[in-house]
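Hi W.,

Here's what went into the run:
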Amino acid sequence: MAEKASGKVDMEKIVSLCQRRGYIFPSSEIYGGLSSCWDYGPLGVELKRNIKEAWWRSVVQERDDMVGLDTSILMHPQVWAASGHLEQFADPLVECKQCHLRWRADELKDNTCPSCGGEVTEPQQFNLMFKTFMGPVEEDANVVYLRPETAQGIFVNFQNILNTTRKRLPFGVAQIGKAFRNEITTGNFIFRSREFEQMEIEFFVKPGTDEEWFDYWLEERHNWYVNLGIKKENLQLRKHTKGELAHYARKCYDIDYLFPMGWSELEGVANRGDFDLTQHVTHSGKGLSYLDEETKEHIVPCVIEPSAGVDRSALAFLCDAYVEEPDKEEIRVLLRFHPTIAPVKVAVLPLSKRENLVEVAKKVYADLRPCWMVQYDDTQSIGRRYRRQDEIGTPFCVTVDFQSLEDNQATIRERDSMNQIRVPIAELKTTLAAKLEGEDLFVLPQGGQIWKEER
Ligand code: GAP
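Here's what came out:
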C-alpha cells in the first residue's frame, strides 16, 4: 500500500452507503459484530452475483478452452501438506510486550507497537489456516482445515477433468467459492477479511509456453475490469519481488486498484509452474501427468493462475462507481455502475399513488421483471425516488404519469445524464434491453421522442 489515494472517495462514505442502502452489514451485528466478517444485504448479494456471473460468462461460458468446477471447502489434510500450506502459509506474528496487541511484523515500520509504542516480541510464524475437526472426536487425527484458496480443489481433480471432458492442453478450470484465512490484521472494510470468496482459474499449458500464456492472462484479466467500467487510471500492474513471491510461484503480478487506502492488490496472476501437480503426484502416489499426443511423452503441465477476490472486486466496483456531483442546491450521490454490475437494472415509478397510475405501472413492472432485477416504488416524491435509485446505482427509471393513461407511453430516465426519453409502453422492454447493452439513450424506437435533456 505504497501511495495514499488522494481525491478518491473516503472509505467511510462507501461503508455508510453500503449500510444505509442494504449493500453490506457487519456480521452478527445485533451481538456487536464479528471481527472482519461481513453479510451482504439485498443489494450486496445482487452485486456479488453480477460480478460472479460476469466472470463466469467471460472465463467459462464464452470460451471453449475452459470448464467449471465446484469442490468442497473441507479437503483431505494431506492436500495442505502437499501444497505447502501446512508448512509455509504463515505470516510473521509479533506481540506488543506492553499492551499485548498482535501485529504482522512485515507491516510494522520498526520494532514498536503502532497502538501504544511499546516494544514488540521477536516474530513467530503464524499459520493462517483455520483448523476444525471432522467427526465427533476432537483429536489430532481428525483435524481438517477450511481451505485458504480454492485452487487446490482444481489440482486434485486434474485427472478427473482430463478423463471426463477430454480437454487437451492448453485448457483451464475455473472455480468460485469461499476461502478462509485467519489473518493477523484485517480491515479496510471487505478488503481483507477472514472469510471471503475467490474466483480462480488454473490454466494448464505445455511447459515452455507458460510465459506467453502468463502475458495473455494478465492482459485478459486487466481488460475484464476495464470492460466492466473500472477506470484504467485506477488500475496498475505490479510485479512481485523475489522476496514477495508465494512458495509455489515462479512469477507473479498483482493487478492493483487505487482503493481509498492506496494502491492494493485486487487480483494476482501467478505462474505456478508444475509445483502443485508435482507435489500432489509425490504425496498421493497417483499419476497426474498428461500424454502429449505429438511427442507421445508424459508431461506435467505448467499452470497460470489468475486469482481474483469477489469481495475485493465488489469494493473496487463500489469505489470506482461512487460519484458526488452538484445538482441545483444539493449534492447528488450516485453509483455509476456498468449496467452488467448494477444490482437493480430498472426501477418502475408511478408519478403518484393514484389507482389508475399504479395499475399501469404494476403491469409494466410485471412485464419487465422476468428480464432483469427490477424495483417498483410508489412512495415519496418522484425526485426523492430518483435520488434513491441514483444512490443504489440503477441505470434506468421508468416513470408512468397521467399522460401515459392517454398515450400509452412512459418515460425512461438515464441515471448518469438524467436525460429522459418517452417511448410507447409496448416498446419498453426492447428499448431498455438495447440501452442496457450500451445503446445511446437518444436512439429512439418508433413513436419515441426526446423528453427532457438535462444538460
Ligand atoms: N490461489 C492463489 C491465491 O489465493 P492470493 O493472492 O493469496 O492468491 C488471491 O489471493 C485473491 O484472493 C487476492 O487477490 C484477493 O482478491 C483475494 N483475497 C486474498 N486474501 C483475502 C482476504 N483476506 N480478504 C479478502 N480477499 C482476499
